[in-house]
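Deliverable D5.2: sample structural annotation.
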Amino acid sequence: MKTGLLSALAIALAFGAATAQEHGAETPYAGYETRAIKSLSDADIAELRRGGGWGLALPAELNGKPGPAHLLELRDDLGLSAAQIAKVTEIYEAMREDAILAGERLIAAEAALSAAFEGPGLTAPELSALVGQAETARADLRVVHLSRHLETSALLTEDQIGAYQILRGYAQDPCDSVPDGHDAELWKRHNGCG
């Protein structure tokens, strides 16, 4: 009887493990359980610690408000003046410093939230406080990035913003796409194409 029971148990365990492994491929969070901070990957943490944007400024970026990092990358293509470069550099350095500090606060808040779930006894009020701290840290970090997009946009001409949109792939170059029904030469002259 014991042998039969042990055999049945072994088969059940093997079937369960195979089923879990099979379904694990469909689970988008498989492997996340090994993270030190469950809600942040190593790449997320590295991006936050270097003061990177982490996608937090997309509302500005995709609505014609360039950020300092990409402006500095494209400074030659955009024809930024020496004064613009100096001011954008100043904004970038202040943003990066503030973003690193805010990023560390977010990492610490997410670590505390993750750690709170490791043991028993987490209460609803404690959970609410931890989530509030994490979301405040995320909001503070987002403001750091978005506010710098406002600052840099004010330094640019409309033509520079338009060129930025084209260079970043958010808009088409009017010189490359003459609409049907338009005289190509007139269109290009009207749009300042060389």
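Annotation notes: The CA atoms of residues 1 and 7 lie 10 Å apart. The chain is about 65% helix and 0% strand.
The annotation will be released with the project's public dataset once the embargo ends.
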